[in-house]
Specification:
alpha/beta, single chain, 10 helices, 255 residues, 11% strand, 58% helix, six-stranded mixed β-sheet
Length: 255
């Protein structure tokens, strides 16, 4: 598995871990997923171990999925019947079978007519939150329903490559809602939060008043004396006389 794909898988698993989906995982597989795995000869267990970062997981399949594969294998033509039979046999050999009694029928589902009984059972199992479920499917209708619910990670095959989907927009919104819910039900009482908020506002107002008063009052500076370098030195009486006599001598010479 490439480094970028492994990094994206780690981010997705850590995201859902914050929502309570932690190892050991229960990976629910459906009929279309097993059929594609048989067609492309995908080593499912080996690929899942790498993709799930070698966390503990259990493969599970519903009884309704096995019955659906059996019916499809009987009515399929050419080699498709053999593929369906191989997919069903793989589910019997490698997966833990969930009977009808294991499915919580009280959980409501949408698109019942489009999903079919196997898809409805998977949605009900995920909605019961009994385990940390991961769903592996190729059914686009089932994928859309699970993406809109945002309750579990999703696995699918793309040209024989096993992919862990990035969290959907609904899953991200669900995570944000849960975080806000935790904050609102925190141990800090509402009145205490209001007191802390008022205290912060008063402190901010005091700081603003202090800055305005300091800017309005000007600091008076002491008057400085004259610059000694710019002042002209006083001449003595003797120097004044010599200067006067020099001027007289110059006038006489000019005459």
């Amino acid at each position: 598995m490439r480094h970028g794909r492994a990094k994206a898988a780690r981010k997705t698993l850590s995201f859902f871990a914050r929502q309570g989906v932690t190892p050991p995982f229960c990976v629910l597989v459906d009929g279309p997923f097993l059929v594609q795995a048989v067609v492309h000869k995908v080593p499912i267990i080996e690929r899942m171990e790498k993709l799930l970062q070698y966390s503990r997981f259990t493969l599970q399949i519903t009884r309704s999925t096995l019955e659906e594969l059996q019916v499809l294998a009987r009515h399929a033509k050419d080699d498709k019947g053999d593929v369906m039979a191989q997919a069903r046999q793989w589910g019997l050999d490698e997966c833990e079978i969930l009977e009808e009694k294991d499915v919580d029928k009280s959980v409501e589902t949408t698109c019942e007519t489009e999903l079919g009984i196997p898809g409805q059972d998977i949605v009900k199992l995920v909605g019961s939150h009994a385990h940390s479920y991961i769903v592996a499917t190729q059914d686009e209708t089932l994928l859309d329903v699970l993406r809109n619910s945002g309750q579990c990670p999703l696995l699918r095959l793309s040209r024989g490559v096993l992919l862990l989907e990035h969290p959907s927009k609904a899953a991200q919104n669900r995570a944000q809602y849960e975080e806000k819910k935790k904050y609102s039900h925190s141990a800090v009482h509402t009145s205490e939060r209001e007191l802390a908020k008022n205290a912060k506002q008063e402190l901010r107002q005091q700081q603003q008043q202090h800055t305005t008063t300091t800017s309005s009052t000007r600091v008076k500076r002491k008057a400085k004396g004259p610059n000694p370098l710019s002042c002209k030195k006083k001449q003595s009486a003797s120097s004044e006389e010599t200067a006067h006599t020099r001027k007289r001598r110059r006038k006489k010479q000019q005459e």
